[in-house]
TrEMBL record:
Alphabetical UniProt keywords: Membrane, Transmembrane, Transmembrane helix
Pfam families: PepSY
Name of the featured protein: PepSY domain-containing protein
InterPro entries: PepSY
Origin superkingdom: Bacteria
Ranges for domain PepSY: 302-359
Transmembrane segment boundaries: 21-44
Coiled coil feature spans: none
Length: 360
């Protein structure tokens, strides 16, 4: 458990592909609990949950005075992890509903070029995140992150991601600041201000059609204990999806090492930003799971596909359009896709017991 004590107050990626394309966490708050299966806090269970309804509640691009000549791909913000090529860290969440979860982050030795109207030309760092469940690589995301050297703000200019199945990637989505976005243009997001002020709110992801979120600085002067160590002078930031307002995450960020706990992604276990005397500074394990992904092993299904369809239809009347076996909420389940009168719904049926363990 995370111990929080508050004081008052053109690039190339591995052997898979080449693309030219158009960033949190089991933080423990004494006031709220985490909902199993969602990785996010329910607003109703957080006594200080924000009531955000629109992007105008936050500072955004129009407030930040961004200039291309001031934006650099590499550097450091006191509360962020080092944005320097070769930086590596990993978070783990063993209570993840789908299995043992791990996210590995690496700042790659490459940059991404941008040329945005009213900002100008500049380069961003390319930060790779790889997600694993029970030792199997399941998702890869490249984030475009940069530093405004005038303010020390850390900024996001978008991302591109892939789902990984059997070692093969399939594109899942992207957003990129400066590109068309619905009726407008996607804008940058602020990941961490250079000067932390409690109560400050800002857009952290600027695509209103794909990835649109706000953040609020909730607390400062915290102490956090996670597997990688005990850290002081930390801050708590709350993020909320402005498309799905029920999706809320809390993050703890600490000086020099950056993110140490996140309600979705877990707790910091290793980072090469730590002193070499700390065993958790050894990041040699990062990448090993990717190179030799574990094979998912599951017991033979006791429930037939036909029975799974029948059970799912009883729960959610409609027409079955697809059935697959996946690991969800720590179990092997049939994912029964059903077309209903109001849209498409997935019903999860346990392959061993026939129990409906959830819907999506």
């Amino acid at each position: 458990m995370v111990d929080i004590q508050a004081k008052p107050v053109d690039w190339r990626l591995g052997p898979f592909f080449r693309l030219r394309a158009a960033f949190t966490a089991a933080v423990v708050l004494t006031a709220a609990g985490c909902i199993a299966g969602s990785g996010a806090y329910a607003a109703a269970e957080i006594k200080d949950a924000p009531r955000w309804t629109k992007g105008s509640d936050f500072s955004s691009l129009k407030d930040w005075n961004l200039k291309g000549e001031q934006i650099v791909p590499h550097g450091s913000n006191p509360l962020y992890y080092p944005i320097t090529p070769g930086h590596k860290h990993a978070l783990e969440r063993r209570d993840h509903p789908d299995g043992r979860y791990r996210k590995e982050t690496v700042v790659l030795n490459t940059t991404e070029d941008f040329d945005i109207r009213d900002i100008g030309k500049f380069k961003t760092a390319v930060v790779q995140e790889e997600e694993y469940l029970d030792g199997a690589l399941t998702q890869r995301t490249l984030n475009w992150i940069a530093l405004d050297k005038a303010t020390n703000n850390v900024l996001s200019f978008g991302e591109v991601s892939w789902k990984i199945e059997d070692g093969k990637p399939s594109f899942t989505g992207t957003w990129r600041a400066g590109d068309p976005d619905g009726d407008g243009v996607a804008e940058p997001g602020l990941l961490m201000p250079g000067t932390f002020k409690v109560g400050e709110r800002y857009i952290h992801a600027g695509s209103k059609s794909t990835s649109y979120g706000g953040a609020e600085n909730m607390e400062e002067g915290l102490q956090a204990t996670v597997p990688a160590g005990t850290f002081k002078g930390c801050v708590r930031v709350r993020e909320q999806d402005l498309i799905d307002l029920k999706d809320i995450n809390d993050e703890i960020w600490c000086p020099d090492v950056g993110l140490v706990s996140d309600t979705s992604d877990g707790k910091l276990v290793i980072s090469n930003a730590l002193p070499s005397s700390n065993p958790a500074s050894n990041v040699s394990s990062i990448g090993k799971l990717r190179d030799k992904p574990a094979k998912q092993k599951s017991a033979a299904a006791k429930v037939s596909i036909a029975d799974a369809k029948r059970i799912a239809i009883e729960r959610m009347p409609g027409k079955v359009t697809d059935v697959t076996i996946e690991k969800k909420r720590g179990r092997n389940v049939y994912v029964v896709e059903i077309q209903t009168g109001s849209g498409e719904v997935d019903v999860f049926v346990d392959t061993q017991t026939g129990e409906v363990v959830g819907t999506d």
